[in-house]
Automatic annotation (TrEMBL):
It comes from the Eukaryota. It comes from Aphanomyces euteiches. Gene3D superfamilies: Ribonuclease Inhibitor. This is RNI-like protein.
Length: 372
């Protein structure tokens, strides 16, 4: 960095109240030019060097930390309000025990890597919810078989009725609680990932969503026995607060998807996200015709690595049609690899802009797939 550039950064650095940095930052410069009260979200990138330097951060206000170390040596700042961990089997107990005793922690994201969740782990999470106004809980992966139903009942009863909870993500879970636990969903963002959602469970979820505060719903599951429940869920959308619906991992054939298209198109959704390995031309053709008559949806996100250019053009033309009187009409194509060349992307952006809309290609780190 040149001297003039460095001077300009130094002149404005103290104006920031929150910064996001990794552990390679020049800590001496950081402490000199930033407000000592600045809230820091710290990403640890190198295990050995990070652990050796953690004490250097002790006098700073680290409110968020993210790392992927499978070790019990991790940062326990009293100011910590958010934590993200890729948890090895040996540190799960420490993570949840820390949460239970923390006086500040509000957000916890843990990738469990299919390790077993224990009764003690859930007990600590429950204690955390009792002690703090929890805002975010994300548990990705993990095996729940070792926990008895009584503890699961307490766990679900506690977290689902938490009035401060803004985002809840539960992965690899048993959805029996939808039928047997008394709760009113308070989270604004609900992400459910499961292998066993059948139509009965989907109907139960639909009933629970009515009257809830959920605005963003993500559903990922792999059962082909859920079509009737999905139909019920889509039919009941106007009785819910859901504005953003995301589907992923659904084992449903193209013909069935085509049956569901009118329900999607007639829904009051504002944002729809579909994750797919590929999009079938028959489905997209029907979807384009139907979505042209929708007057609430302003954003369509497609996460895929395989979609024909002519299908994408048809979809853009329908979604940005002049009859759709919306201030914003945006289509995002999310890909883990750039499968479309630069020239094609430019022409698609131009097509959308000409019709009064937007098109964006975003490189996404991971595409979760199902086939259409």
């Amino acid at each position: 960095m040149s001297s003039p550039q460095r001077a300009s950064y130094e002149a404005i650095a103290k104006n920031y109240s929150t910064v996001i940095v990794d552990d390679n930052v020049d800590l001496a410069w950081f402490k000199t030019y930033l407000d000592p009260r600045v809230k820091i979200e710290l990403t640890l990138t190198n295990f050995v060097e990070s652990i050796e330097r953690l004490e250097d951060w002790a006098d700073l206000c680290v409110t968020g930390i993210s790392h992927s170390f499978s070790s019990d040596t991790w940062y326990r700042s009293q100011n910590l309000t958010a934590q993200s961990d890729l948890a090895g089997k040996d540190i799960l107990d420490s993570i949840f025990a820390f949460a239970a005793k923390s006086t500040e922690l509000r957000k916890l994201r843990v990738f469990l890597d299919f390790h077993a969740i224990t009764t003690s782990n859930l007990g600590n999470i429950i204690e955390w919810f009792y002690r703090q106004p929890v805002q975010v809980l994300e548990l990705t992966g993990g095996c729940w078989r070792a926990v008895d139903n009584a503890m699961k009942h307490r766990f679900y009863q506690t977290i689902l009725n938490c009035t401060t909870l803004d985002k809840l993500k539960l992965d690899c879970i048993d959805l029996w609680f939808l039928k047997f636990v008394s709760f009113t969903l308070s989270a604004r963002s609900l992400q459910l990932f499961t292998f066993d959602m059948d139509s009965e469970m989907a109907r139960a979820l639909s009933r629970r969503l009515q009257g809830s505060r959920v605005k963003h719903l993500t559903i990922e599951f792999y059962s082909g026995n859920s079509v009737d429940g999905l139909r019920c869920l889509l039919q009941d959308l106007d009785r819910t607060s859901i504005e953003h619906l995301e589907f992923s991992g659904l084992s449903i054939d193209v013909e069935t998807w085509c049956e569901l298209v009118p329900l999607i198109a007639n829904s009051p959704l504002k944002i729809l996200t579909l994750n797919a390995a590929r999009f079938d031309s028959k489905f997209l053709s029907m979807f384009a015709k139907a979505i042209q008559n929708n007057h609430t949806m302003y954003e369509l996100d497609l996460s895929t690595t395989c979609i024909a250019n002519n299908d994408l053009q048809l979809l853009i033309q329908a979604f940005t049609h002049s009859s759709r009187q919306l201030a914003t009409k945006r289509i995002k194509l999310l890909q883990s690899i750039h499968a479309i060349d630069t020239l094609t992307v430019h022409s698609l952006k131009l097509l959308a802009a000409t019709c009064g809309g937007e098109f964006a290609l975003i490189c996404h780190p991971l595409v979760v797939v199902f086939c259409l």
